[in-house]
Amino acid sequence: MRSEDAVEIVRASLALAFPTASAEGLNRAAETVIRWGTEGVADDLNAGLTTRMLLDLLQVAGISPEDFRLAEPDHPFAEPAEYRTWSRTEGMPLLPLLPRPPDDPTTPHDPPRPDEPSGRDGRPRPDGPSGATPRQ
Fold it and tell me: In 3D, which of 68, 65, 47, 55 has the Cα closest to residue 95?
């Protein structure tokens, strides 16, 4: 699939979710969602990160969070994470970027020493010491 086609599909979906967004805002948000998809961020989302991602998308689309209404108003809105695991786009607030998986934001994310295993289960990871590629 061409990237232009993927952006248009996501843009059409976002237009339904964000009916007050401008055409430019929808384009920026769709491009952002496609980029996050290539980063694989959906694999490690939790409730707080999902809320943070929604708030980031609202910012990118140029919509005030106060103007956004949930499709299911009775659904509890999780407290947004104070960090993100995806790349930052202009308009998003500055927050710490933690490598995935973000199970515990208090866990040290320093590369292990050569004498220590790097995986959570004690086995070395094949994709490097932190298991993630650096992003902005």
Answer: 55
Residue ranges, the chain, pLDDT below 70: 1, 99-136
pLDDT at residue number 101: 56
* Type of residue at 29: A
List Cα–Cα distances, 30 to 20, 35, 62, 71, 111, in angstroms. 15, 9, 13, 20, 33
Secondary structure of residue 118 in the 3-state scheme = coil
SS3 readout for 56-103? HHHHHHCCCHHHCCCCCCCCCCCCCCCCECCCCCCCCCCCCECCCCCC
Read off the tokens for 16: 């339904």
- Two structure tokens written together for 133: 């590629």
Q: Do 25 and 66 form a contact (C-beta atoms < 8 A)? A: no
In 3D, which of 31, 75, 94 has the Cα closest to residue 57?
A: 31
pLDDT on residue 136: 44
pTM given for the model: 0.66
Specify the residue for token string 């289960």: 121
Sequence-ordered list of residues with C-beta below 8 angstroms from that of 53, at least 6 positions apart, any chain: 36, 41, 45, 84, 86
